[in-house]
Specification:
The protein is of the alpha+beta class and 257 residues long. It is built from 5 helices and 14 strands.
Amino acid sequence: MSTPTAIESVAAALLAACRDQRPADATPLAETLTHAEDAYAVQARVAAALEGADAPFPRHWKSGGPSRSAVLTHAPLPAAGVWPSPAVAAGFHFNLRLIEAEIALRLGEAVTPAMAERLRPDTAGALVAAMAVSIEVVDSRWQQGPAAPALLKLADLQSHGALVLGDWMAYQPRDWAAQTCEVQIGAQAPAHFTGTHSLGDPAWLLPLWLRHATRHGHTVPAGTVVTTGTWCGMLKAQAGDRVHARFAGVGEAQVQL
């Protein structure tokens, strides 16, 4: 675990980047954090500074990873950057605008630490009440953007910018390997994807995310939402673009950048 001073230095850089709307240089901090828990400690310090130490338990999260064998990462999302579709992002500052089309899941019941410990990937879907198409606008408070060190990106909410949520529908298991996704960004040609979720099933990550979210003794409230990782990689967008993501049989989401 890094020292409190090291964690505070990274948190201070991120807070300054948010305040000044100017990304910080990650280079002098590249070796500051040594473990994922250091990055999560930075997340908590930044949230406390921006939202107050008594802020309620986060109701929106992101979770995911490149494969089932990789270490998944998680981040609570600031409520100010979570919007219903169709959304307009005018006036919201971004340093980058990279687009991920995702499936978000909403819990139908509260989950205690004990419940989270017992969960298995094949049973966790029973906790989900609804699903929706989501668009994550990926951003960075580091000058290096996606090339910043992994732990500094994790400290920066895993490069989160904003989240747009489509209409909710009742959750049901699907043939995710056959699931199609279309993403239209501005005047670019639509991009098409089939079965490209890195974990095979968006609900597979629920036990790991919930164990993370409850690890300090918190109960995750019913209605909490987690978005579960990209189906399209990270697609480039720019100010003025309209982004439209569609998942056949699930729905759509839109945001005007």
